[in-house]
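can u pls check wat happens w/ magnesium ion
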Amino acid sequence: MTVEIPTQPARSRRIFGNRTLNMRSIKAIGYDMDYTLIHYNVEEWERTAFDYAKDRLVATGWPVADLEFDAAGVIRGLTIDAELGNLVKPTRFGYVIRGAHGTRRLDFDELRIAYEGTFVDLGEDRWIFLNTLFSLSEASLFAQLVERLDRNELPGRMSYSDLYGAVRVALNEAHMPGRLKQKILADPGRFIVQEPDTVMTLRDQFAAGKRLLLITNSDWDYTSRIMEHAFDPHLPAGMSWRDLFEAVIVSADKPAFFTASRPLYRIVDEDSGFLRPQSGPLDPGGVFVGGCAPDLENHLGVHGDEILYVGDHLFSDVSVSKVLLRWRTALILRELESEIEAAEAFAEDEARLMELMDRKTDLERALASSRLDQLRERSGHAEPIGGPTPPEERIAELREALTAIDEKIGPLAGAAGRQRNEMWGPLMRSGNDKSLFARQVERYADVYTSRVSNFLEATPYAYLRAARGSLPHDP
Ligand SMILES: [Mg+2]
């Protein structure tokens, strides 16, 4: 064969499939904006949000002016336990095997006492899942305030749940009056990461006949200015980001956009934001407010699995659109890049760890069999199965060998649990198992990838095949 096969992108930039997605059968692609089409400098943004929320608390008399956002102390995918004031990283089955009270890591015994018989069920109010990168400031603030509360340094009597409520209110107030957004708009270059490949990805998709939609919870003023800043410099003269989208829906109020039936408005005057109810077919290129997904489907004449929705919020973007409307879904997970790079850097140690674990398993089998021989000798109900060495001697020798191997495994397993983040380890794993976050990803995201621009290499014609799932009995 003479056709040249393009080289694969680095693993950290590939698209991974839970369910096969044929891009050729997708007619419309809906995009979320924040942390999907637009990537922010996470630390800048979250530090700013944290500081505004802190200012709110200081204004109500809380002595917390010295608190600082700690980017390394929290990761997306953790769960806040509002009842006990903890942050936990559960396994896919909801077992808690790693956690912290405030910012202090809980040891094995503390975790056992707190969570024996308790499973993290995200349907209960007690648990708050950190769905997006916008959750980091919230988790960091809550964790630090838990320690102040424990030391009786906060005014009034409060439970940890009350404290969480106060954090939520402070953060909502920081976001809602637009002070935060005004600060971003005043200096977008500080907060927004420019990515020309994202623009080219959408131009390819547009040219390939995909009908592109922007569906964002941000308001029109913010959306238009952010999109202009991030897209227009990378488009040919005379073209604007608006030309790429058949419809722009702002203030969409996801997840309600997917779950509720609400009226759609059209922005008639884009400068003043003047609205009128939308009736009849959507004018191409129009800007709309609110509405709901089933009406949008009817307007466009495309349904269910003909639509791909691309977003970074595991619940609001990906879970509800999949469960309620059967849309195809792509989750944008920027942290995947550092996660994969950390795993690649650890690969040699990982192989050594696996080798040691295999050896340990062998020793444990031998120990169990020697114990059975000891039992059979004592009770006389059957012949021992082992060799001529007395079981007691074998048991002593094996115990010594197991102690020696554990001393080698300990530091390696510890290092494996600190990959990417010293305190919390990998996002997608909890111990040897998948994390609860990973479970949500595989359940709701048909595909996941670190950024929208990874679809550039994949092309609008890609056949994104699901990975073969592994099972414990695989040979
Ligand atoms: Mg988003």
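The chain has 16 helices and 21 strands.
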